[in-house]
Design a protein that fits this description.
Protein name: DUF2059 domain-containing protein
Keywords: Signal
Largest sheet: none
Number of strands: 0
Radius of gyration: 23 Å
InterPro entries: DUF2059
Structural class: mainly alpha
Strand content: under 5%
Helix content: over 70%
Pfam families: DUF2059
Shape: extended
Number of helices: 7
Order of helices and strands: HHHHHHH
């Protein structure tokens, strides 16, 4: 079981490092702007990012573990899910995610823009957008994937033709150049 633990810890380190927030500190952010950012993150549910991270990490870890060890007990996957959810919940409760996101909001929004966003998200339309955004994103992603798949054949044909026209592919009649 220790090999599972090593793989899990490695996956966790690699995955978490890939989404590590920049090292900017929020101490340089004026108090009024920091408060507006916190309120915006609260209203829009930025803490749900932690849950999304946990779900994504659990799925990726489970798939990697099952690929590497097809005989891994289902209980091991349950343990991964349990521990990841506990750690993420603890960190979200400490405000680590929000502190990590603070510099990103600071960099991209002025205080005036934050106040406009807050006014919008506090409105009925803003509240509706918050409620439906996950479903809208999921449906849009599926449509985008289907559209890209539909275009792939056409794109492959056009690229092949263009490569042939510009002599970028070895001809069937000529041997490929050797280096």
């Amino acid at each position: 079981m220790s090999r599972y633990l090593v793989i899990f810890c490695t996956l966790f380190f690699v995955f978490s490092a890939s989404i590590q927030a920049e090292t900017d500190t929020d101490s340089a952010i004026p108090a009024e702007k920091r408060a507006a950012i916190m309120k915006l993150m609260e209203i829009t549910g930025s803490d749900q990012m932690g849950k999304m991270f946990a779900d994504m990490f659990i799925k990726q870890s489970a798939a990697a573990m099952q690929l590497a060890y097809p005989d891994i007990p289902a209980r091991a996957i349950d343990v991964i899910a349990d521990e990841v959810n506990q750690v993420v919940d603890e960190e979200v409760a400490k405000g680590e995610l929000q502190r990590s996101l603070m510099p990103v909001y600071h960099r991209h929004f002025t205080l005036e823009e934050l106040n406009v966003l807050l006014a919008f998200y506090e409105s009925p339309t803003g509240q509706k957008s918050i409620r439906i955004m996950p479903q809208l994103t999921q449906e849009s992603t599926l449509i985008g994937q289907a559209w890209a798949q539909q275009l792939s054949g056409k794109l492959q044909l056009r690229l092949s033709q263009r490569f042939q026209q510009e002599g970028l592919l070895p001809s069937a009649n000529k041997p490929a150049a050797t280096e």
